[in-house]
Amino acid sequence: MTAPLLKIDNVGKRFGGFVALDGINLEVARGERLGLIGPNGSGKSTLVNCMSGTLHNETGTVTFDGHPMNGLLAHQRTHLGLARSFQLPRPFHSLSVAENIRVPLLYTVRQRRDVPHTREELEHRCHEVLGLVGLEHKARKQPKDLTQVKMRKLELARAMAAEPKLLIADEAMAGLSESEVKDIVALLIALNERGITIILIEHIMTAVMSFSQRLAVLVSGRKIADGDPQDVIRDPEVERAYLGQ
After folding, report:
1. Measuring CA to CA, which residue among 167, 168, 160 is closest to residue 105?
2. Is the same domain home to 196 and 146?
3. Given Cys at both, which of 11, 106, 116, 222 links 24, Cβ 3.0 to 4.6 Å?
4. What is the pLDDT of residues 99-109, one digit of tens each?
5. Count of domains observed in the chain
6. Are residue 144 and residue 113 in the same domain, yes or no?
7. What distance in Å separates the CA atoms of residue 51 and residue 55, rounded to the nearest whole number?
8. Residue 10 in 3-state DSSP?
9. Which of 134, 163, 192 corresponds to the end of one domain?
10. What pTM does this model have?
11. Pair (93, 120) in one structural domain
12. H or E element: which one contains 207?
């Protein structure tokens, strides 16, 4: 049996007396598209932060591509191939769109490979990444000049520039129109077809259902369901705790 790309084993996290994560177990296979859902306050963001290194779990282990992640800082996890986008895009507003892509190219991929890149190679890769998300024609623009959906695409491009094995897309569609949501879902599926494993955290259920091959549900820091999306959304506990709210 092929080892999972990501394995979360009995992960727990507290904030004082509040239990944010209570013994979470989750595996993600290579090349999989996993949807992670749950009501506000369910622990999704805390789990993502424990995966990516923004927070450190107090119990349990996170293993990525065979590497124990406990104790590693966020940039060390990125160097291993785990990247995330943020719910609120965080571009460098003083830099152009292309320059926003050059930063992760210079400080993640270049360091990971430990080889020099010529300016021409860097420029080629930068425009290649922007082409993946349809922003190559916006390379010289400033982030403030982008529409909301294009800003979300820039956020995804910044994560993709790190050449991840696993991309965690955190509410990449919040506030978008129906057509824009479909556009982002199609983009994420296209990235997955290029070999990127993706975890999608999202409240828009139409997007989650059209994207996900498997669905996991968190409620009050516990995983209450994990499986085929159609089976999961029909689970009575899921209906009570999430869909029925």
Report:
1. 160
2. no
3. 11
4. 999 888 887 76
5. 2
6. yes
7. 8
8. strand
9. 163
10. 0.92
11. yes
12. helix 205-211
Assigned token pair, 49: 């932060």
Is residue 11 helix, strand or coil? Answer: strand
Q: Which of 114, 140, 163 is the last residue of a domain?
A: 163
Rounded-to-integer distance, Cα 51 and Cα 40, Å? 19
* Contact (Cβ atoms closer than 8 angstroms) between residue 207 and residue 179: no
Asked if residue 29 and residue 9 are part of one domain, the reply reads yes
Confidence (pLDDT) at 67: 95
Helix (H/G/I), strand (E/B), else coil: 189: helix
Q: Are 101 and 89 in contact (CB under 8 A)?
A: no
Its domain, for residue 57, covers: 1-81+167-245
Residues 201 and 242 in one domain: yes
Q: What is the mean pLDDT of the chain?
A: 91
Residues in contact with 118: Cβ distance below 8 Å, sequence separation at least 6, in sequence order: none
Q: What is the DSSP letter of 89?
A: -
Question: Which tokens go with 107?
Answer: 């400080």
